[in-house]
Design goal:
With 133 residues, this protein is mainly beta. 14% of the residues lie in helices and 53% in strands. A hairpin with a 2-residue loop joins β2 and β3. It starts with 6 loop residues before the first helix and ends in a 5-residue tail after the last strand.
Protein backbone atom coordinates (compact mmCIF):
# COMPACT_ATOMS: atom_id res chain seq x y z
CA UNK A 1 0.00 0.00 0.00
CA UNK A 2 1.40 3.38 -0.99
CA UNK A 3 0.82 6.41 1.21
CA UNK A 4 0.60 9.81 -0.36
CA UNK A 5 1.41 12.72 1.92
CA UNK A 6 -1.20 15.40 1.76
CA UNK A 7 0.57 18.77 1.29
CA UNK A 8 -2.12 20.59 3.25
CA UNK A 9 -1.31 18.56 6.37
CA UNK A 10 2.38 19.55 6.29
CA UNK A 11 2.10 23.15 5.07
CA UNK A 12 1.93 24.57 8.62
CA UNK A 13 5.14 22.73 9.53
CA UNK A 14 6.92 24.29 6.56
CA UNK A 15 5.88 27.76 7.69
CA UNK A 16 7.31 27.46 11.21
CA UNK A 17 10.91 28.40 10.26
CA UNK A 18 9.66 31.35 8.21
CA UNK A 19 7.45 32.65 10.99
CA UNK A 20 10.21 32.25 13.56
CA UNK A 21 12.59 34.27 11.40
CA UNK A 22 10.28 37.26 11.17
CA UNK A 23 8.63 37.11 14.60
CA UNK A 24 7.97 40.62 15.85
CA UNK A 25 5.61 39.44 18.55
CA UNK A 26 8.25 37.81 20.73
CA UNK A 27 10.58 39.42 23.24
CA UNK A 28 11.40 43.06 22.70
CA UNK A 29 14.58 44.89 23.66
CA UNK A 30 16.79 42.13 22.27
CA UNK A 31 19.63 42.40 19.78
CA UNK A 32 17.49 40.56 17.23
CA UNK A 33 14.64 43.04 17.79
CA UNK A 34 16.92 45.97 16.90
CA UNK A 35 17.08 44.57 13.36
CA UNK A 36 13.33 45.15 13.07
CA UNK A 37 13.65 48.86 13.82
CA UNK A 38 12.81 50.82 10.67
CA UNK A 39 11.50 53.99 12.30
CA UNK A 40 12.61 55.04 15.76
CA UNK A 41 12.57 57.86 18.26
CA UNK A 42 15.54 58.32 20.54
CA UNK A 43 16.45 60.96 23.08
CA UNK A 44 18.85 61.83 25.83
CA UNK A 45 19.96 64.93 27.70
CA UNK A 46 20.37 67.71 25.12
CA UNK A 47 19.51 65.66 22.02
CA UNK A 48 16.73 63.84 20.19
CA UNK A 49 16.41 61.83 16.98
CA UNK A 50 13.41 60.79 14.90
CA UNK A 51 14.18 58.22 12.24
CA UNK A 52 11.55 58.06 9.51
CA UNK A 53 13.48 56.37 6.73
CA UNK A 54 14.74 57.52 4.38
CA UNK A 55 15.01 60.68 6.52
CA UNK A 56 16.11 61.48 10.05
CA UNK A 57 15.55 64.57 12.16
CA UNK A 58 18.36 65.15 14.64
CA UNK A 59 18.04 67.84 17.30
CA UNK A 60 21.24 68.75 19.10
CA UNK A 61 21.83 71.76 21.37
CA UNK A 62 18.49 73.24 20.27
CA UNK A 63 19.23 72.96 16.52
CA UNK A 64 17.18 70.56 14.39
CA UNK A 65 18.34 69.22 11.03
CA UNK A 66 16.60 66.83 8.64
CA UNK A 67 18.56 64.74 6.18
CA UNK A 68 18.92 61.34 4.55
CA UNK A 69 19.79 58.38 6.72
CA UNK A 70 21.12 54.88 6.04
CA UNK A 71 21.46 51.92 8.38
CA UNK A 72 23.53 48.82 8.94
CA UNK A 73 23.28 45.93 11.38
CA UNK A 74 26.26 45.09 13.54
CA UNK A 75 27.06 42.89 16.52
CA UNK A 76 25.66 45.48 18.96
CA UNK A 77 22.45 46.42 17.15
CA UNK A 78 21.30 48.68 14.31
CA UNK A 79 23.24 51.85 13.46
CA UNK A 80 21.67 54.75 11.56
CA UNK A 81 24.12 57.07 9.79
CA UNK A 82 23.78 60.56 8.36
CA UNK A 83 25.08 64.15 8.46
CA UNK A 84 24.39 66.95 10.93
CA UNK A 85 25.80 70.38 10.03
CA UNK A 86 28.48 68.76 7.87
CA UNK A 87 29.55 66.24 10.51
CA UNK A 88 28.89 62.52 10.22
CA UNK A 89 26.85 60.96 12.97
CA UNK A 90 26.03 57.41 14.01
CA UNK A 91 22.98 56.53 16.10
CA UNK A 92 23.32 53.04 17.58
CA UNK A 93 20.10 51.36 18.75
CA UNK A 94 21.08 48.45 21.00
CA UNK A 95 19.33 45.92 23.21
CA UNK A 96 17.59 47.42 26.25
CA UNK A 97 15.49 47.97 28.21
CA UNK A 98 16.37 51.54 29.12
CA UNK A 99 14.96 53.95 31.70
CA UNK A 100 15.42 57.69 31.83
CA UNK A 101 13.76 60.61 33.53
CA UNK A 102 13.40 61.78 37.07
CA UNK A 103 13.25 59.34 39.98
CA UNK A 104 9.63 60.25 40.62
CA UNK A 105 8.54 59.73 37.01
CA UNK A 106 10.92 57.45 35.10
CA UNK A 107 10.04 56.48 31.54
CA UNK A 108 10.79 53.01 30.20
CA UNK A 109 12.04 52.48 26.65
CA UNK A 110 12.63 49.42 24.54
CA UNK A 111 16.26 50.12 23.62
CA UNK A 112 19.45 51.95 24.53
CA UNK A 113 20.61 54.68 22.15
CA UNK A 114 24.05 56.17 21.59
CA UNK A 115 24.51 59.19 19.32
CA UNK A 116 28.10 59.75 18.20
CA UNK A 117 28.80 62.98 16.35
CA UNK A 118 32.31 64.28 15.97
CA UNK A 119 34.08 63.64 19.27
CA UNK A 120 30.81 63.70 21.26
CA UNK A 121 29.18 60.51 22.51
CA UNK A 122 25.68 61.05 23.88
CA UNK A 123 23.71 58.34 25.67
CA UNK A 124 19.94 57.95 25.75
CA UNK A 125 17.01 55.62 25.15
CA UNK A 126 14.88 54.67 22.14
CA UNK A 127 11.63 53.08 21.06
CA UNK A 128 10.45 51.72 17.75
CA UNK A 129 8.25 54.09 15.78
CA UNK A 130 7.96 57.83 15.83
CA UNK A 131 6.90 59.30 19.17
CA UNK A 132 7.07 62.99 18.40
CA UNK A 133 5.09 65.07 15.86
Amino acid sequence: MTHILAPARFAPLLLVPLLAACDDVGPVATKAATRLVRDASASGPGWAADIDRPLAEITLDGRARIGPVTHDDGPNGRTFRGQFDGQSYALLISAGPCVQGSEGAPTSFEFHARLTIGDRVLEGCANRGRLRR
